Amino acid sequence: QVQLVESGGGLVQAGGSLRLSCAASGRTFSSYSMGWFRQAPGKEREFVAAVIWSNGDTVYADSVKGRFTISRDNTKNTVYLQMNSLKPEDTAVYYCASRRPGTTYDSWGQGTQVTVSS
Q1: Which of 111, 118, 117, 107 is nearest to 9 (CA)?
Q2: Residue 15 CB burial class (10 angstroms; 0-12, 13-18, ≥19)
Q3: CA dihedral sign of residues 110, 5, 93, 96
Q4: Cβ atoms within 10 A of the Cβ of 113, count?
Q5: Side-by-side strand order, sheet with 68-73
Q6: Which of 56, 80, 98, 112 has the most neighbouring CB atoms within 10 Å?
Q7: What does the DSSP 8-state code read for residue 80?
């Protein structure tokens, strides 16, 4: 099992920036990729971005392309989500998750709140 701890959430005005961090521990060698997801009140959890540990390949949801950047630091077992040009609709609890090869995301952090005021 991989343990994940998110940090970096907070309150920011529209147009501002935040950087989220997700520190992984435990059986990190089993993790193939890391993803960020978010869940707004009354809505289902949605995919935001993902990165592959080995080669850094990334994928983004259309709603955040050009504004958010996911990156990883293999030496620290940490994944980051740089969020720029934030909008009120980005307000949500943000979760990071780990996925082993050929499986779905099966390890989740506790989440960090991001609130964007208009």
Answers
A1: 111
A2: exposed
A3: negative
A4: 12
A5: 2-7, 18-26, 78-83, 68-73
A6: 98
A7: E
